[in-house]
Each structure stands twice: as C-alpha cells, then as structure tokens.
Amino acid sequence: MFYDKTVLDNGVTVITETMDTVRSVALGIWCSVGSRDEAPTDAGMSHFIEHMTFKGTPTRSAVEISEAFDRLGAELNAFTSKEYTCYYSRLIDQHTADAVEILSDMIVNSTLAQDACLSEREVVLEEISRYEDAPDEQVHELFASTLMPSHPLGLPVIGSKDTVGGFDHDTAARFHREHYTTGNMVVAAAGALEHEAIVGMVRERLTLPRGPRTTRTHAVPTAEPRLAVITKDTEQAHIVYGVVGLPARHEDRFTLAVLDAVLGGGMSSRLFQEIREKRGLAYAVYSYHAQYQDTGQFAIYAGTRPDNAAQVISLIKAEVDRMCSDHITADELDRVRESIKGSMILGLESTRSRMTRLGKTETTGGELLSLDEIIDRVDAVTIEGVRTLAQRLFNGQHALAAIAPFGEDAIANLL
Fold it and tell me: What is the pTM of this model?
C-alpha cells in the first residue's frame, strides 16, 4: 500500500503518503461539504465559510494567521468545490506540527464575527461581479445549470448576489455547526512525514464536535435537450455543448479520459485541429469532463465571433457524431494513452498534488489506485470501448449554453 490511513475514534480520517526524497509537507484539512449540500437559501455558504475561516479565532486575528504562516515560510490557501472544501498549507517538514495547530484553530475556533461577516460578504459580492464580467468563465456554470436544472450540482459554487447578500454571523454559525463535524473531516498529508505523528497531531488539535458524515442524496439528473442563452454585448460568443457524464467510480472512467483527449484534450485533438487549425474559427476550443459521486458532465467549450457561432456548433456536433460512428485510430489511442500517463505522472511529482489526490479521493468516496494500477487501467482502454462509450453518452440528450450578443433563436435550430 502506498498510503497509510487511520480513522480516529471521533470519526476524523487521517490519510498520508510518505515521500522520502523531499523535505516539504503538503497538509490539507478537507470537509466533505460543498455547494451541492446547501439549501437554496444557503447557496454559496460553503464558499463563504471558506473565506470566513481566515478571519480570526479567539486567539488569532486575521493578520496574525497570515503572519504565522509567513514566519513558517509556508503557503496557505483554500478552495471550495461542489462536493468539498479544502484548507491547505505547504511548508518545510520541521514546521508540520505548527501548521496542524494553526489550521485546526482556524477551522475549529473561527469566530465568524458579525462585522467580519458583513465585510467579507461584500468581498464575495465583488467576486461574483468579477465572475459575471468574465463570460468565458460564467458560461460553464450556465451550462451546468442548463444540463442539471433540478440537481444541486447545477448550482454555482459561489452562490448568487441574493443569497450571499443575506449572510451574517447567525447563518454562517448555523451552517458551520451543521457541517463542520468530525465525520465530515479528512486530513490528508504528503511529503517528509511519519503517519503516526500526523495522527497524534490531529487527535490533539482537530477537536470538532462529534457527528457522522453529512447524508447526501444521490440522484442522476434527467437527460433531455436543453438550451440557455444569456444575451450580453460581448466580442465573442462563448459556447458550451455537452451531456451528462459518468460518476467518479464508474468502471469506464479511463475510457472517458481517452475519449476526452481524442476529442478535445489538446493541440492534436480533433476539435482543435478542425476548428482552430484548419478553419481559424476559434482561439480556444477544448473538451473536459467532471465526475461527482453520483453523476458527471462532459462538455465542449469554444469562443468565437458571433457570426461564426452557428458554424462552430455544427462542427462540434459533426465531430461528436464522428466519435460515435467511426472508430478512433490506433495512432490516436497510443498517442493519448501516453499523454494521459505522462500528465498524470508529471503532475504527481509535487507534495501538493499527492496530498490533493489523497484528500479528494477519500472525501468523495473514490477509488485510490497506485500509479501502476492507473497505468494498467489506461492501457486497458480499447478502440471499440471508446466508440461504445461515445454512443452511450452522445445520445441526443445534450445541453447547449451560450453567452453572446444574440438570443436563443439564433442557435435554437442547432440544439
């Protein structure tokens, strides 16, 4: 086994990977709560709590938290997703105990003070405004809400101005009490460490209220053709076309990675070559997939001049149809296999990437495989398997989202 794992009596999980060739440690405290776990009136609260955790405890102000990590020569940050929130630090190994103590203090003892809540919600409202001024980012959330309109995964992580504008100490404290419990916590670490030492630090410091993991309702969204357009005075039409994908533990997830790479995963991909290189219709065109506990999404993005939007959408659909009707070539399969394996191995050469893999997989109930096991799964993908999966995914039940200076009628016939 390449990792060590201990579940404490109170329900906190500690999972580590020792790396003998480094002098640093990446440490993450993961909470299995994200935007999908929020009530409609709490939309964006997971992300807001992430912000507030940095705003002080009874023994440390926000400035003192920052100064403490600066003294350690450490990196400190956090992020929120649809299924989890992570607080992490990367630092030299001799300061690991200090990092565990400070991060635990932030998470366990955050005061969520009213004045800080009122100030920070203005910061988040500015973040939402900034996001709305970036249509190439906003269109992906528009696509998710179009693809899964009745599923919590369709909600934006950042929330909305209406919900965030109502956040205060009472609402934040209630959400923190409900979700920041021992059963929801995973501590992941990778680097120059001893597992039992990390376990001891966590047992002493991460003293949250006892509680089981938050129950999460699993449901596969209903697939049907859907179209959404936000009409905005933009220079480009930002387009996302896609379908419901696969959940995180699906047996065909490695086949999906190959399909994604062939279709739009890089400069040699079919979409890039056809739309950008051959026709010059877009600067950015790519595909991507996201996998969650119960479902997933597969999407294709392109940004193009508005008068080229209909042609680009038609070309995307043509390449999707070709994936379903024709086999990929042996050369394509060999090329993307090596690309996937290379990206994975290079990406796991840092302590942070290894910690993230441990924490994300454990928090979401995924399958934690060794590098050799992953390589074997990638090598087992077949040409016929890629076409069969394409036929299953691209079955006509797709969603199309756009932010552009035109209305739905301009592309409705392409749905």
Answer: 0.95
